[in-house]
Structures are given as C-alpha cells and as structure tokens.
Amino acid sequence: MILDFDATDDVVYDKQEGRFFHGYYDHYCFLPLYVFCGDQLLDSYLRSSKQDAARHAWAILSLSGRYNQFRLLMSSLAYILLETIRRVALKDTELAQAYVNTLRLKLIRAYSEIQHPLLRSQVKIPL
User: Fold this and answer.
1) pLDDT digits (tens, 9 = 90+) for 20-51
2) Are 75 and 43 found together in one domain?
3) In this structure, what are the phi and psi dihedrals at residue 69, rounded to the nearest 5 degrees?
4) How far is CA 78 from CA 84, 85, 86, 92, 100, in A?
5) How far apart are CA 29 and CA 19, in angstroms?
6) Residue-averaged pLDDT of the chain
7) Domain range spanning residue 106?
8) Which ranges carry the Transposase DDE domain (predicted)?
9) How large a percentage of the chain has pLDDT more than 90?
10) Which of 16, 25, 68, 100 is the most exposed place for a label (fewest CB within 10 A)?
C-alpha cells in the first residue's frame, strides 16, 4: 500500500483565525494535509500555512493505521453477521447461497421501503 501525503493551499478571504501569508503561494491561506491511497482520500487535516508542509505526517500516519485496523475489524464483523443471517435466518431459501453484497443491497432496499411510508428522505446505509 502506498500512502501519498499532499499539502496544498486553501485560500483564506477576510481575516479568518489561523490565516497566514505564505510566500510560495503569494496569498493568505491554510495548508491542509491530505492523505491518499491511490485515488481514495483517507484523511485530511486543516492547519495553518505557517507550518512546514511535512509536519503532522507521522501523527496522521499512526492514527490512520489504527483507523484502518478499526475499519477492518468492523468489516469483518459485518461479514460474520451477514454469514450468520444467511446460515440461520435464510436457510432453505433462494438467498441462502447469495453473495454478501446481494444481501446487503436487499437489506438497504428493505430499510428504504420501511422508511418511505414515514416520509423520511434519508436512507441509512449499514456498513
């Protein structure tokens, strides 16, 4: 896995707190730090442009590692839950052999149909 740490200017108008004139960009700005893996944005950290572009990279890297471990744990638990639903609740049905993604989509559709009569415009997607 390759992580790309990228700092770029974010122009500041008026006198916002934390603004700083950056000579390289020739304007007042913030200098947020973005962390990408391929095209996927993993993390971002808004900070003053008074700091070095590489500052905070190690802190974000250590936090991202813990965050990715947590995401992996939650993803694994979701998979185990859907496997259990398939094995116990869907036994002897056509969905007993369905892919996990098919079950997830059917649960999303069922949830949105339940929410529709209540005139709610939001759909919550289980992770």
Assistant:
1) 888 888 888 888 888 887 888 877 888 877 77
2) no
3) -65, -40
4) 10, 11, 12, 22, 10
5) 6
6) 77
7) 70-127
8) 1-62, 67-117
9) 0
10) 16
